[in-house]
Specification:
By secondary structure, this protein is an alpha/beta fold. It has helices spanning 42-48, 72-81, 95-107, 163-168, 176-180, 195-198, 241-246, 252-261, 280-289, and strands at 4-10, 24-29, 32-38, 56-60, 88-92, 115-119, 127-130, 134-140, 148-154, 160-161, 185-186, 192-193, 199-200, 207-211, 229-233, 267-270, 293-295, 301-303. It is globular and about 75 Å long.
Length: 304
Amino acid sequence: MEPFEVHILGCGSALPTTRHNASSQVIRIGNKQFMIDCGEGTQLQLRRGHVHFSFINHIFISHLHGDHCFGLIGLISTFGLLGRTAPLHIYADQMLEKLMKPQLEFYCKGMNYPIFFHSIDAARHTVIFEDNTITVETLPQKHRIPCCGFLFKEKPKKRHLIGDAANYYNIPAYMRASIKDGADFVTAEGETIPNSKLTKDADPSRSYAYCSDTLPCPENNMLIKGVDLLYHEATFAESEKGRAATTFHSTARQAATIAKDADAKRLVIGHFSSRYDDCEMLINEAREIFPNSINAEEGMVISI
């Protein structure tokens, strides 16, 4: 099975601390890498995590608060210094392109690679990226400015061809792809061999949901139903529930409730407020509701 990994580069909130970096993640699916958010310091975290800059071709920005995008211009500049030629695709609110154009013209003039901005409507659930193996969908969030989460989903996979059966029935190489797609096989003698004798079930398709920054959004539970891994912001402890509401953030308990109600398999909480020297209290609150929860940590790589 190909790798499907979430690499946490930063899981802090707006105020910088020595404990946490600003929000950023790299999602590795097979040989492809996607970035979610790009807070200040993301480049250094990429270096520390030994993540290859050149493999990142798509960046998804949840919203335009600085702790989620202040690192973008520096990363773009570094791509140029490294001699990048491959196109870079950035998916974000339409205002990002307007904000970045003067910076690109001033700091990144003469770069040898093109940048394509893709405008997304944070208020709509829609597919914003698709290739032959995955889709990326938006998840509308509730924040002080337009904000969306992202749902990464593998497409259904082909069935596995049983090697012994393929050899026994002398199935030609050119027919094996169609059999993986579900076709039966007809021998030279005219006997039909049903697909169930030639193949076994495909690997299950995997999924990952990123939800930050936001109030709890139970209306998204059906969109992320059964997700293999949910990253949900947990900026505050339950004792700060009032502050969470006024700042349009979630508590650890609320994040865990979303995971439970959506039948998520695992929960990782992050976007921690700078007020917490130790996030143990947050994960303890989450586990009271949803035991299969962990705290995000810089450098953590979670395999799905």
